[in-house]
Amino acid sequence: MSTNTENFTIPQLLRHVATYIHSGDKTFMLRRGKTDYEPITYKETFEKIHAVSAWLYSLGIKKGDKIALLVENSPEWVIFDQGLQTLGIVNVSIYPTVPEHDVEYILNDSEAKIILVGNHFLFKKILKIHQNCPQLAKIVTVFDDYQKLYEGDDIREKVITLQEVYNTGKGKYADLKNAIEIEYNSIAPDDLASLIYTSGTTGTPKGVMLTHRNFVSNVTACLEQIPVITSDEIFLSFLPLSHVFERTATYMVCIKKGCTMAFAQSLEALGKNMMEVQPTIMSCVPRLLEKIHEKALKNGTSAGGLKTKIFLWSLSIGKQVRETKEAGKTPGLILSIKHAIATKLVFSKIKAKTGGRLKFMLSGGAALPQNVGEFFGDIGIRCLEGYGLTETSPVIGVSEYHRQVFGTVGRVVPGVTVALQNPDTKEIVAQQTHESFNETFESGEGEIIVKGPNIMKGYWNKPEETAAVIDADGWFHTGDVGKFHKGYLKITDRIKNMLVNSFGKNVYPTPVENTYLKSQKIDQIFLIGDKREYITAIIVPVKETLMETFNLNEEFFSQNNQFIEDKEITDWIGQDLRRLSNELAKYERVKNFTVKRNPFTIDSGELTPTMKTKRRIIESKYKDEIEKLYHSEVEAD
């Protein structure tokens, strides 16, 4: 096999690592056991991959067929994916959080013949819908005790455990090895590798067709952009592998570079798992970083007195050092001594809670508020920002390791061209590639449109929708608005999110919401104001802070009324709104608001699996409360 991986397929990448970079006894993955993390070697991984491939081949599953994965992040996800990819079978990725009707739609739309199911809860979803999916021939369970979850024989013949797959496939592999190799060698870079269904903020989910070339070209570009990643890295994976961001930024990086991949037990256990694994790199979403930021500020300031003064002094020193370095200068002796003291007293303690070895974190999936990024920069934790969509495999731009411009999503990656287009006139406002990069380049705003080997083939079974986003010249239209700032791409908002008030003023919600999210009292904020005289908002307070401030218990959050009408609480939140409004233009300021008792959630249908708000659903669901905001006394100025 050639050692030039540029035109490799996904299964070739892993085989290349095991052949040229690591031995079979090297640890590939780490699984959390009963008491600690346990290693899984390349040899063990390939034995199971071969077993999965042999089992699938023996069933007559062939290249181009679809198999669905409804599984949490785990070694089983990786092994099963590699087993089917070896035969050129297409991975249909389903978020574990999507409702049953969407799972049913995806299975039928993709014509998936087999599904891998990760736990009892997810299996119960399949039990409710499998009869409506006539092409679904087999259900593979990661767990063994599936029989206690159903009654009757209507599904018995369909179900098999993953362990049974391993056992059966292992016995067949020797006889089928040559046939499997023929299938493996027949896979071309432009063959379909995965269908990833978009979260559907505006309608029915669409299956994004991503090829082997899409994934491999994109991970190659990312590694060229961030060359500090080595085969010695340990990644801790907790974002869903069903999402393209984690798929490329963790899984694809690890199978191309030879890094070790550990899996978090859950979001709740993430802090503990970070201490156990001591990762060097993690992919994350802005919400996690915001939570760490909020907790660090709370812990550092709640005690008052000398402890708070030391904490705030340390942050100010960290900021001075960061800004000095950003200006291309070296901190002087006095500032360096102060920084060493701040690091010992404050920063080192925060870093220790991440495991103490983080080289960097990569934030994606949504815009990271600038103040949060600056906070991590001040304490010495490098937080790179990236940008992309499922349709772009996903990375379009990412911060360079040696240079960060807070509030931007970095430099355009190699092989990709980004242009900004006036949505009305279709005129190209600006254009950049990795090669044409200029760190002083500034531009006006426009819709971000993209060309490159990372652009999807299209939407599965939806040629009209495909034509609506990929124009005749081959540009993919992201629907995002952005500009170039200091050579890096800066996202303004989504075109569809834009609110146009009754005076014709355009308001992009994201930067306004991020301004108000600087408040330690606010957990979520949703802006309203399209075709209205002024901006209003639905605000969700930080639960822990609210409970401590007003001495509340859990019963307060289980009341039937979804909105909090206590004037003392609304006045408390209003204080921060008025203070932060000074950072905004008058037409952007929230003039009135209502306080929601509990957060917007995925389960309630208010958020997508990537934590984006579903505007139409929220506006419809709370239309009565919204109308009251425009027929009551204005609370915030």
Folded structure, characterized:
β25 (522-528) and β26 (535-541) form a beta hairpin. The model has no long low-confidence stretch (mean pLDDT 92). The protein has 637 residues and is α/β, with parallel strands linked by helices. Helices cover 38% and strands 21% of the residues. It has an eight-stranded mixed sheet, sandwiched between helices. A five-stranded mixed sheet has the order 12-13-14-15-16. A five-stranded antiparallel sheet has the order 18-17-19-21-22.
Instruction: Estimate the strand proportion.
Output: 15-25%
Tally the beta strands.
28
Quaternary state, please? single chain
User: Order of strands across the widest beta sheet?
Assistant: 7-6-5-3-4-8-9-20
Major sheet: 8 strands, mixed
Helix segment tally: 19
| End-to-end C-alpha gap | 67 Å
Work out the helicity level.
25-40%
Q: Which consecutive residue ranges, at least 5 long each, have pLDDT under 50?
A: none
Structural class: alpha/beta
Dominant shape: globular
Radius of gyration: 25 Å
Overall pLDDT, averaged?
92
